[in-house]
Design goal:
This protein is an alpha/beta fold. About 30% of the residues lie in helices and about 10% in strands.
């Protein structure tokens, strides 16, 4: 594997070679995967055994139509089928959304999932990229993003919640305010592909609101939360008109027999699925604690099933990636090819503690081994550090990696600047082989939660949430047309969105695995909610609804008219 690792990464159009390619170059066994963000606890071993026992049948015969498979998924998740379109992975749906619904331009915060930047550019659209600031912990200021969209005249807006690769989370009410403020756009897409792993709110999805609005699509992934990327299935939820427009363009057999088999199995495994989400959230805390102990490593708060990590000054991500793979058989996602990121950042998927210990040991060896082997050169002596930007290189060389002092304080003193957000966790003291970088005091950020502070687990400085709710006062106004109405928007659109014919929303809300999730203690007895400052426990599990323990996805129950 060692001799071919560079060619494997250069020879693929994706960010990383497939696991099949890596396995072929190895000894028949793939590496420990910290790259592909899927659920390591689902499906269960018993489910895999059932799939293996039916393998001949699955690969021999045609699947049912996509309508049949979609109907079963909607029955499980309590969604109206006319509001849902299932795709061969969320990427197929992104492709059709671009072809059918994006006319001129699309706005997206970066860094983010690459298809949201690449797909529109491939079809000649203008992509307006709103940069998330590293100095702000990559937190998305929705009011500033809305102002950016207005200034650019963008027609379509996209939000990923949680965002990939940093895991930044937006409260549901803030997303609704954003949709209200930009109700005159052609389209707003809320990509909730990783929302099942979030625990900052018990009801974080905006699916209910999307169905009742004329210009909102919510995108959901199944491969990530079900741990089955290879099957390629995902779905979108929107009002019947939008969903039907996308659904009408999809091939009749765009979903394969594996997707059908899994969807029809799920009704018997709701409890196991919810338990798997709890274990991922627990492991996310433990993994952040272990990584934060490495000198010079910065761990950003995440609500996804991954952690965004900044390497020590001078470390080159491609070198770290290649050495972890060749020397330790560990695959990580180096983020140098993501717009808005650099090779100094890694995205590390949450995995069980045994695998995390192996990762930490590998990083220690690669980053802090002997000076002959280390991937972190000494700074200020002309060694091989290069960020790709001459100005940054000169700054790092002249300040020994510490940067210009006082810039953050000056920026915060400028008029009109937003309040500082909580900063990511940085490791404490560097080892002797690394130069000491002076630490600047961090401004205190207002917490969206009560002031009561939970006890911390031993040895772990808990990441602060990077998702404080924005103030609602600064939303930019929509362009005005005749009569004071928003430009290019019919008067009816200013009213509350009309309810789709035949659909009656019920009051019940909840996401699968959220409202029904029982609190599980992490190391030291703390739950994820306590570490993030929540003082209220998660709601108790609901009584069985007769659908295998699955709650209502998107917080909806609908009665369909005759």
């Amino acid at each position: 594997m060692a001799g071919n690792v560079t060619s494997l990464f250069r020879g693929t159009a994706a960010h990383s070679p497939s696991m099949a390619a890596l396995t072929r170059e190895g000894d028949g066994a793939g590496p420990v995967d910290f790259c592909i963000p899927c659920n390591p606890y689902f499906p269960t071993p018993a489910m895999f055994d059932e799939l293996a026992g039916r393998l001949r049948e699955i690969i021999t015969y045609y699947p049912s139509s996509a309508d049949t498979i979609t109907s079963e998924l909607c029955s499980l998740l309590q969604l109206p089928p006319q509001c849902v379109a299932m795709g061969n992975g969320s990427t197929e749906l992104i492709t059709w959304i671009d072809h059918l619904l994006v006319r001129e331009s699309l706005a997206i915060p970066v860094p983010t999932f690459g298809r949201w930047t690449d797909q529109p550019m491939e079809t000649g659209k203008r992509v307006d990229m709103f940069p998330l600031q590293e100095s702000n912990g990559f937190a998305l200021d929705l009011a500033a993003y809305a102002k950016f969209i207005r200034s650019r005249g963008t027609k379509v807006a996209v939000i990923c919640n949680p965002n990939n690769p940093d895991g930044g989370f937006l409260p549901r009410q803030s997303v609704i305010q954003f949709m209200d403020a930009l109700a005159d756009l052609d389209l707003i897409v809320i990509d909730e592909s990783f929302l099942e792993f979030a625990d900052a709110e018990s009801e974080p999805s905006v699916v209910e609101d999307a169905v009742m609005r004329p210009n909102v699509i919510v995108l959901r992934s199944l491969g990530k939360n079900f741990g089955l990327h290879g099957i390629r299935f995902g779905y979108m939820v929107a009002n019947p008109s939008l969903a039907g427009k996308v659904r009408s363009m999809l091939p009749k057999w765009n979903l394969n027999s594996f997707a059908e088999t899994v969807v029809f199995m799920l009704k018997n495994h709701g409890k196991e699925y919810m338990e798997s989400l709890h274990m991922v959230r627990r492991d996310r805390l433990d993994m952040a604690r272990q990584l934060s102990a490495l000198p010079g490593l910065t761990i950003y708060p995440s609500q996804g099933n991954f952690l965004f990590v900044r390497l020590p000054v001078g470390a080159e991500g491609t070198v770290v990636r290649d050495r972890l793979l060749t020397e330790h058989r560990i695959l990580v996602r180096e983020c140098g090819n993501k717009v808005g990121s650099s090779s100094r950042f890694l995205r590390l998927v949450v995995r069980p503690q045994t695998d995390v210990r192996r990762l930490v040991a590998g990083l220690e060896q690669v980053l802090y081994g002997s000076k002959k082997e280390t991937a972190v050169p000494e700074l200020g002596n002309g060694t091989g550090y290069g960020s790709g930007t001459a100005m940054v290189d000169r700054l790092v060389g002249s300040t020994n990696g510490a940067g210009v002092q006082g810039l953050a304080a000056q920026a915060n003193a400028w008029p009109g600047q937003p309040a500082p957000v909580p900063q990511p966790v940085a490791a404490a003291a560097p080892q002797p082989s690394l130069p000491s970088v002076p630490q600047q005091p961090r401004p205190a950020a207002a917490s969206p939660y009560p002031a009561q502070q939970p006890a911390q687990a031993p040895g772990y400085s808990a990441p602060q949430p990077a998702y404080s709710s924005p103030q609602p006062a600064s939303w930019p106004a929509a362009p005005q047309g005749p009569g004071g109405m928003p430009a290019q928007m019919p008067p009816a659109a200013m009213q509350a969105p009309a309810q789709s014919p035949g659909l009656q929303p019920a009051a019940q809300t909840g996401m699968p695995g959220m409202a029904g999730a029982a609190s599980m203690g992490a190391q030291g007895g703390l739950t994820a909610a306590q570490v993030r400052g929540r003082t209220q426990p998660e709601p108790p599990p609901p009584q069985s609804s007769g659908n295998g323990g699955w709650g209502a996805v998107g917080a909806m129950l609908y009665n369909q008219a005759g």
